[in-house]
Amino acid sequence: MNMLKLSLGPLQYFWPRERTLAFYREAVQWPLDIIYLGETVCSKRRELGTRDWLGLASELLESGKQIVLSSLALIEAESELGALRRLVDNGDCWIEANDLSAVQLCRGRSVPFVAGPSLNIYNHRALALLMEDGLRRWVPGVEQGEVLLRELRAATLAEGRCMPELEVIAFGRLPLAYSARCFTARALDVAKDQCEFRCIQYPDGMPLATREGKPFLRVNGIQIQGEEITDLGPELPVLRELGVDVLRLYPQFDGMSDVVSHFDLARHARVAPPRLAMRNGYWHGEQGMHLDGVAG
Q: Phi/psi of residue 7, each to 5°?
């Protein structure tokens, strides 16, 4: 039985500095194989700066776990490119490239990288080109479910190529969209440049409901997430069949230790685990908020 690895995806939210540091110093004790560090959403979130993330990475490397430094999904300024160069030049960690700027820098410096979910890859030829540039692991986008992965894997193998490590988002709220505008600032009727870091008040994102009052989305700075938490735990037999190597678990403010323990037990079991959350629609080619395909 293929032993799946567990990764702690990059923190999507804005938490206070001490809460963030305490979270990762606890997380390094959990049964994880890979920990992603860094800001992927908004460069204005400076409770931890680039130097802090690099220092934390150096500290956590002593645990023996793989530490990956994650880059922004939307790079708009020269200062953000400068911070990205510092991540790439660190010399100790792989990079999660969430923008082609990160791919270019990693290629130029021969740094191995992970293709993050915001780096759009929809066919085996694009995947092959990126592997030539140094791609070692791929995290498909949130809408890329079982059918697409089967097709892409078959096309890659048919050409005599090897797949990179495959990491699938198995738990958490899915990042659906990014914008140059700040949705949180707009919701609170303040300017983006005068946001006063209001998103720190929403450690799991700002809930957004429909006019009928039904929970719909989460507003998280320049990012929009689905309201529902995706859980691919019951899909583990299929994920193993597809050759998935890593299950990504996105951090949440409370109860994350229990989530990791649940998936750790599941990866050692021979049967699919009970469901923690109630949505898996994208995996089956349906609307993301649907529960489809698996009883749980």
A: -120, 150
